[in-house]
Amino acid sequence: MTSSERSWALYDWANSAYTIVIVTAILPLYFKSAATEAGISASTSTAYWGYANSLATLIVALLAPILGTIADFRGFKKRFFTFFSTLGIVFTLLLAAVPIEQWFILLVVYLITSIGFAGANVFYDAFLVDVTTEKRMNRISANGFALGYIGSTIPFILSIAIIVLAQQSVIPLSVTVASQIAFVITALWWGVFTIPMLKNVEQKYYVDRVPKPVTSSFKKLLFTFKNIKVYRPLFLFLLAYFFYIDGVNTIIKMSTAYGSDLGIDSNTLLIVLFVTQVVAAPFSILFGTMGNKYGDKRMIMIGICIYIFICCYAFFLDSALDFWILAMLVGVAQGGIQSLSRSYFGKLVPKESSNEFFGFFNVFGKFAAVAGPLLLGVTAQISGNTNTGVFALVILFVIGALILLRVPNTKEEVSVQSTKSI
């Protein structure tokens, strides 16, 4: 990889620590513990966690297309990326300062970290067109996810080690303090490895700045909507992405809370998540390679099919072994479906308007993640059974697959369909 490609991919290495420690593993267990101490039931605390994720993603979804359109002007993309990544890093650090008794404040601070994380990813994803060529997009996007899975395991293992040693009284720390140290480690890891991105990646494709960039961005956004038929295949893909990535993101964000509700102990959950990361790294690269050989769309469909099976299997899940099997299947499909979706979309968008369209990409991805956790949370709360909530997600994958079948396989087909639409 070139210097800019490596620096771009390294940000996946940096922020993936947040995904596993804060979103998926340690903070959810930390929050569940705090909620239990406050007398909140397991299904209700899972619902609260889902609501917090929904609200954070809703906020980013509303901001993404507007900020993305502004970021298409020269010099704005990195500014927005820097602001949101800094927001996420600082508030992740602040998680360590919130007393465990203050479960509501913990949720609020987490919500802000999630906004920073998701907001930075809008512009990070859009930088893909600036750092590499269309021919290399699958490879670089897959390498980013693979680096993320591998890199995230380092702070994750360190955090787990501190927590387990505290549990065993090997070190003179409470489990609460050990968990707070994990939040500090995550923030520092995220911050340090963001530096190469800030130093070596620059906006290559842009629109020349105008006197009133905010006003112009709204006009540009309105123009895109008025001429949506021109981009019909692209928005058709986004609609499919809206549904299937909703299920993917929900399973990522709610997996630990789900396992906890099934009675799986926290140590087993952390080990399962670690192994899942290890499995996901090579399969991300494999999906990228097979995407080049067999087609991005076909491999995305295979990933969707795996997730449909996961949702069905989850309905009957009742043991730690079942949870292990489920986690390994997630590891096989998770990175591949995400990296190919990003690179496939990157090949379709006009490069000089990449931020605007990746803004839509993140709107559909993040706004979708409002519905998934909400669906799971409400279903779990009404039925009193988290398995039913996970099974309900199969609807999202089926709808996504049916729409994806209507999306062209190649950029040439996209051009032909767009011309017909005009």
From TrEMBL:
PROSITE patterns: MFS (PS50850). CDD domains: MFS_YxiO_like. SUPFAM superfamilies: MFS general substrate transporter. It holds the Pfam family ATG22. This is MFS transporter. PANTHER family: AUTOPHAGY-RELATED PROTEIN 22. GO terms for cellular component: plasma membrane. InterPro entries: Atg22-like, ATG22/LtaA_families, MFS_dom, MFS_trans_sf. It is found in: Cell membrane. One of its GO terms (molecular function) is transmembrane transporter activity. The keyword Transmembrane helix applies. Its main location: membrane. It comes from the Bacteria. It comes from Perspicuibacillus lycopersici.
